[in-house]
Design goal:
The complex is a heterodimer of chains A (501) and B (364).
Chain A (H helix, E strand, L loop, with lengths): L1 E10 L2 E12 L4 E5 L4 H4 L1 H11 L8 E7 L11 H11 L11 E4 L1 E2 L5 E2 L4 H7 L4 E5 L3 H5 L5 E5 L2 H10 L28 H13 L3 E4 L6 H11 L5 H13 L14 E2 L7 H5 L10 H4 L4 E4 L7 H6 L1 H6 L1 E5 L4 E5 L3 E6 L16 H8 L4 H5 L3 E4 L5 H5 L7 H19 L11 H4 L4 H13 L4 H17 L8 H9 L12
Parallel strand pairs in A: 3-4, 5-8, 8-9, 10-15, 10-16, 11-12, 12-15
Antiparallel strand pairs in A: 1-2, 2-4, 6-7, 13-14
Helix pairs in contact in A: 2-3, 7-8, 7-17, 19-21, 20-21
Chain B lengths: L5 H9 L6 H9 L3 H9 L10 H8 L3 H14 L2 E4 L7 H4 L7 E6 L7 E6 L6 H16 L2 E5 L5 H10 L8 E3 L13 H10 L1 E4 L11 H12 L2 E4 L7 H11 L3 E4 L7 H11 L3 E2 L3 H7 L19 H10 L6 H7 L4 H14 L2 E4 L2 E4 L3
Parallel strand pairs in B: 3-4, 3-7, 4-5, 5-6, 7-8, 8-9
Antiparallel strand pairs in B: 1-2, 2-6, 10-11
The chains are: A alpha/beta (501), B alpha/beta (364).
Chain lengths: 501, 364
């Protein structure tokens, strides 16, 4: 009359184990799901009923109560269909309880009784990896990302019931290796000219400094941004696993990939708040911010994004995680990405000062869309100008990504050894210790502060960028004035409002 | 009823609804302003050719209107003069379109010195702005009163230049809004400084917002006040051209600063030069036009630290072109980092300026 079956539900990018309790008792025939199910869960009733009947099994015409026990969170998704179906069969004593001991079931049921994968197979399987996990045959590859010790893939409910009732052998699963997919990343050698921009890009990669590019169309903003993942070191196993989990939870993991290349996400500017930071009505889906974890989040035409979406990025960027809080639950997802943004300098986008016909007012209004605190997050802010025809047609390619990536990797290694984090994450208290300034550099910065060209926050950020620049040039001790001055030149003020003194 | 001073009635008449400069001139021309106001309060129509609705609007303004305007002038520290008053600038007395009532803050005595109007586009190049600043400074140091409109770009730069001279002549700003309504907002410091050291002038009563039609109108006052009008940079159809036309109507000498062909900010000035305007290639040209004796080119210029070694090399390499950092590095054969550092130092010293990634030398 009663059965308890293990399964899992998705909370953001993590799976949570739950127990699906089924009770089939006397009373007016009914089917009730309790335990904070969402709409998708309630629909299970019809899928499970159809699947059982299609598989030649019996639907108990009695009072059925399903309880989703385990967490106080709202449970969503169709992944518990199979657990409900098995629970009903056990409660009706079609399957003996001992047959399902220490097993977990995660699959959606088709009306014909077939098993289907659901979004987030990898984190779901991960949550119950201490059990023998049964999933849809087509979900094997994605489930393998979680590296469960015992995993079974089954095609249909009938097949599964045969195995459990008659002790038949489990269907063979081809040992699909979790294969590593190498997305081709464009090479930095393709970028002609743009020496200062290349330098800024290298700084961004080496210190994980968020970067803003201001330049006219055709200056190569997107081109540079797309090459940034190629400069970053390959993902470690842990990082690659996190990325794969996030992709799986977002429902785009069915391609079965553990990529070691850092992810590159470039959402369109019409992106909604939920799609950017994560969220959603039924279950909380990871957003672009989480999908770009350990990689690059590129915001092209930053001015076109909704201001609320941009401002929502601020806190996650600082903390490296994004927390979505709801009345009933709160979910934390990874959000440790390198933000690179691009914008036009003015509405007309002509680029050269002589050709631009925008009034100063129009320019200001265009650039004032970015809030000060958001602009402050960008350690590196550069102006890009259209490369000259000489540069474009020259035959000599620039340095290739591989060469730059080596230097970047070196800086990463050095900074991790020195302070245990990358240069952009050095806390203000530790700056004096790990990024000491030379006398000249100190004098220069003090003058900038006195002139009012630099804010207190800008001061710390410039010191971090200067640390990266010095590291890139093999100087790991005291920071020379030259690097501080270069760091200042890489932090142009974007809003062209002139206060007259 | 307590008798209010004359200026209060002047201010009240100037701030009547549907008021225009011409109507105001005619009202003021009727004689004693207190009496004129009384006539309006008695629903009389002392002028011909004024539409009915205007009369109705004027008649509906009671004594409270005078009180309100008076208080506004006092709180804003604004003085009011009409053509009949002693304090009215002499230069404007002969002007056919001079405003009948002027509102000002500061010291209108500066208008007694030699006067040069400096006008130009709001969308100026860095070098144009720098030239305006130099010109303002040099003229102020020579005791010449700089007159401009305190708009963005050339206007404000010429004022900032004039204010930079400790013992120089204070500048005059002819503004389109009321003398207490700062526009654009980022000029609030210069605005206050001019009210302190020079004179802020407007034909609009305090509290008047900067409506677009007021700007071309104030240009005629700039033209009327100037002995020489210098156009630093202007588009071919810019607002500065209105000032130029007004100046030509009044036989005020117009001078223009030449610019490179094809630069929008210099199209207007180049047109003027083609039409026979006197060119200004250095600050001395303006002083000469005023007939001021200058001591062998020892014109005051803005102070800045000298460029040294590599910095000089960078300046030479840049010439008069707008360059990106990459171009500077290429021309001066320097590594990009080094070029960026040098440009930063030159910028701090005031030798170069950056707009949108393009660097320009500030050499006149």
């Amino acid at each position: 009359m009663y059965a308890a079956i293990r399964s899992a539900t998705l909370l953001g990018t993590r799976g949570a184990p739950i127990v699906v309790e089924s009770h089939v008792g006397v009373g007016i025939p009914a089917f009730t799901v309790v335990g904070l199910p969402d709409e998708g869960c309630r629909e299970s009733r019809d899928r499970v009923r159809a699947a059982l009947l299609s598989s030649g099994l019996e639907w108990p015409n009695r009072r059925i109560t399903i309880n989703l026990a385990g967490t106080a969170e709202r449970k969503g998704g169709a992944g518990m269909d199979l657990a409900i179906a098995i629970g009903l069969l056990v409660a009706q004593e079609v399957i003996h309880p001992s047959a399902i001991e220490r097993m977990a079931f995660i699959a959606e049921l088709g009306l014909d009784g077939s098993l289907r994968p659901t979004a987030g197979m990898a984190p779901l399987v991960d949550a119950v990896s201490d059990c023998e996990v049964v999933v849809a045959g087509s979900a094997i590859a994605e489930s393998m990302l979680a590296r469960p010790p015992r995993l079974h893939g089954v095609g249909t409910l009938r097949e599964l019931v045969d195995v459990l009732m008659n002790n038949q052998p489990w269907p063979e699963i081809d040992q699909i290796p979790v294969h590593v997919v190498e997305d081709p990343i464009a090479d930095l050698a393709d970028v002609r000219g743009q020496h200062s921009a290349r330098l800024a890009l290298e700084v961004a990669a080496a210190g994980f400094h968020h970067m803003l590019m201001v330049g006219p169309p055709g200056a190569g903003k997107s081109m540079l941004a797309r090459r940034l993942p190629g400069l970053l070191p390959r993902l470690t196993d842990d990082e690659a696993f996190t990325c794969a989990m996030v992709r799986s939870a977002a429902g785009i993991g069915s391609g079965v990939t553990v990529a070691t290349a850092p992810p590159f996400r470039s959402p369109h500017h019409s992106v909604s708040m939920a799609a950017m930071v994560g969220g959603g009505s039924s279950y909380i889906r990871p957003g672009e911010l989480s999908l770009a974890s350990h990689g690059v989040l590129f915001l092209d035409e930053m001015g076109e994004f909704a201001p609320t979406v941009l401002d929502a990025l601020r806190q996650p960027l600082e903390e490296g995680v994004v927390s979505i809080a709801r009345a009933h639950s709160s979910v934390t997802m990874p959000a440790k990405c390198l933000l690179i943004a691009a914008t036009n300098p003015c509405p007309c986008g002509a680029g050269t000062p002589t050709r631009c016909h925008c009034t100063p007012h129009a320019k200001q209004r265009y650039l004032r869309r970015f809030s000060g605190p958001l602009l402050d997050r960008f350690d590196v802010r550069i102006h890009l100008v259209k490369p000259s025809t000489v540069d474009l047609t020259s035959d000599s390619p620039g340095e290739s990504s591989a060469v730059v990536a080596q230097r970047v990797a070196h800086v990463h290694r050095v900074s991790l050894e020195r302070q245990g984090c990358l240069n952009s994450a050095i806390s203000a208290e530790h700056l004096d210790e790990v990024a000491p300034l030379s006398r000249d550099a100190m004098v220069w910065l003090r003058r900038k502060l006195d002139d009012g060209h630099l804010s207190g926050r800008g001061y710390h950020r410039i010191r971090r960028v200067a640390r990266t620049l010095a590291d890139m040039h093999g100087e790991h001790e005291v920071i020379k004035s030259e690097w501080v001055e270069t760091a200042v030149s890489m932090r142009v003020s974007v809003v062209t409002q002139t206060e007259f003194h | 009823m307590e008798q209010l001073p004359q200026w209060a009635y002047n201010a009240a008449l100037a701030s009547l609804p549907l008021q225009t400069p011409l109507r105001l001139r005619r009202l003021i021309g009727l004689g004693d302003v207190g009496h004129v106001w009384e006539m309006l309060s008695n629903n009389e129509r002392p002028l011909d050719g004024i539409p009915d609705d205007v009369w109705r609007a004027w008649h509906s303004c009671g004594e409270a209107h005078v009180q309100a305007v008076t208080e506004q002038c006092i709180t804003a520290g604004v003085s009011v003069v009409s053509v009949h008053d002693q304090g009215y600038p002499d230069v404007l007395l002969s002007d056919p379109e001079a405003p009948a009532v002027l509102f000002f803050r500061g010291n209108s005595a500066v208008l007694g010195s030699r006067r040069v109007g400096i006008v130009g586009t709001r969308n100026a190049t860095q070098r144009g702005k720098y030239f305006a600043r130099e010109l303002g400074a040099a003229l102020a140091a020579e005791g010449v009163c700089v007159i401009s409109g305190l708009a963005r770009g050339i206007d404000v730069e010429s004022h900032v230049g004039a204010l930079s001279q400790q013992n120089g002549c204070g500048p005059v700003a002819v503004v389109a809004s009321g003398p207490d309504v700062v526009y654009p907002r980022e000029h609030h410091r210069v605005w206050a400084q001019i009210a302190r050291n020079g004179c802020l002038l407007s034909e609009a009563p305090p509290g008047t917002v900067p409506e677009p039609f007021r700007f071309p109108m104030r240009n005629r006052i700039i033209a009327g006040l100037s002995e020489v009008l210098v156009v630093v940079e202007s588009q071919s159809k810019g607002g500065s051209m209105i000032t130029v036309r007004e100046a030509m109507k009044r036989d005020v000498m117009v001078m223009a600063v030449p610019g490179s062909p094809g630069v929008p900010a210099s199209e207007g000035t180049n047109d003027l030069l083609r039409d026979g305007c006197a060119p200004v290639t250095e600050v001395v040209d303006v002083l000469l036009a005023l007939g001021l004796h200058h001591r062998n080119g020892s014109v005051v210029s803005l102070e800045r630290d000298a460029a040294v070694d590599d910095e000089r090399e960078v300046l030479r390499a840049m010439g008069r072109d707008s360059c990106s950092v990459d171009e500077v590095a290429l021309r001066a054969s320097l590594p990009v980092v080094h070029a960026a550092v040098l440009l930063g130092r030159l910028e701090a010293k005031g030798w170069v300026a950056n707009s949108g990634g393009w660097w320009e030398t500030l050499i006149v």
